[in-house]
Specification:
CATH topology of chain A: Nuclear Transport Factor 2, Chain: A
Distance between the termini of chain A: 78 Å
Shape of chain B: rod-shaped
Shape of chain A: elongated
Number of domains of chain B: 1
Mean pLDDT of chain B: 89
Number of strands of chain A: 6
Strand content of chain A: over 45%
Oligomer: heterodimer
Largest sheet of chain A: 4 strands, antiparallel
Distance between the termini of chain B: 131 Å
Structural class of chain A: alpha+beta
Order of helices and strands of chain B: HHHHEEEHEE
Low-confidence stretches of chain A: none
Amino acid sequence: MKLSYFWIVAIILGLSFSANAQNELSPERKQAVDSLAIEKVRDLSKYISIVGSKETPWSEANRVIDRAEELFMTGSEIGVSSITKTEISYYSVRKYFERLMRLNYKKVEIEWYNIEYMSDLQKQPDGTYVGVITIFQKFKGYDAEGRLVYQDTTKKDITVYVKRKETQIGGRLIGFWDVLLGDMRVKETSK
Amino acid sequence: MKLLIKNAAKIMMFLLATIIITGGATSCKSKKKLAREKAAAEYATKVEQSKKDLTAMLNGTTTWTLDEQDARLNTIKSYNIDDAEVIDLISKVETKISLDRAEEQRKSEEDRLRREEEERIENAKSKYQTIDNLLSNIALSQSVETANNQIETVLNEFATPDVPVLIIISNAGGFNDYDRPTTISKFLNYLKDKQQYNYKVDIVKRDTLGKIIELELIKKVNK
C-alpha cells in the first residue's frame, strides 16, 4: 500500500516537473519564440502590403483582413499618422484595414523595415511573455499619372503577447506558443 | 720373436677394435645430444615467438585481423607449450579475441541499424518531397490565380480543408514547441500571401482512403 502511494507521488512529481520544464524556456527555445513573434509582425507587414495594394482583388483583400485580425488580441488598436496632421488617430484592426483598402490613391506601396525588439519578451506573473517590437514603415501613394503624391516614414511600436497554451489534435495534447499582437502605437512620423 | 709379433698384431687388432667401438659409441652419443640441443633450441624459439605473438595480440599492437589472430592462437595452442606464462597469455588472448569479436559484432549491428535508419530517413524524405514541392510551388506562384489553382489541386490530397497543420518552431531540449495550430486551407493561403516556403514536412497522417488528415511541418531556422 505504502509502495502504491510512493508511485502515485512519484508520477505526480514527474508530470509536474515535465509540465514545468515545458513552460520554462531555455535560451534556445526562447530564441525560437522570439523569432516566432517577429515572424508574426512580418506577416502583418505582408498583409498590410497586400491589402494596401490596388492590384489585390477585393475577395483576396477581405480574406487577408480576416487573417490579419487573427494576429491581434481582441480590442487592439492601430495608430495612423500623417505629416499633414499633428494628431494620431487610432482604429480597430478591421477598421484600419478597411480604411487602408479604400485609400484614395491609384497605387500604394507600403514597406516595413528594421523590424526588431525594442523590449525583449519578459515573463509576467501570469506566465505571459510581453515585449515590444519596433518597425519602420515607408508609405508611398501615387496618383493616376503615376506621380508620387504622398510619402512618409513612420516609426511604430507593437506590443506582443506570447502565452503557452494547449489543445487536443488527433487525440494528442499539443502545447503551442500563442503569439498575439496588441496595440500598434505611432512613435514618430517624418517625410 | 714370431710369437711376439703375432701377439703384437693381436693386441693392435684389439686396440683398433676397442678404438672403433669406443669412438663409434661416443659419436652416436654426441649426435643425440646435438639433436636434443637442437630440439630444445627450437622449442625455446617457439616459446619465445609464441610469447611475443600472444603479447602483441593482447596489447592490440598486431595488424592481424581477428581471424588471423584466431588462427595464430590455435597454432600456438597446438604446440602444447608447457610454460606458465604462455598458458596464462593463451587464456587472456582467448578472452580478448572473444571480447573483440563481440565488439566487432556490436559495431557491425550498429552500422546495420544506422544504415537502415539512414535509408528510412532517405525514404521518408523522398516520400514527403512531393508534398514539400507542392507547398513550395504555391509560395513561388507568379500570380494569385496560379496560386489559387494550385491550392485547389493540393486540397484534393487532404480529407477536408480543415485538416490540422502543426508547425514545430523548435525541438530543443527534447520538447516540440509549436506555433498556433492552423488548418490546411488557411496554411496554403498563408503560403500564397507570404510567397515563401520555409518548412519541411515531418509527419503526414492519412485516412484509409489515402487522404491526409494531419500534417506536421518543421519550420526552418532563418540564417
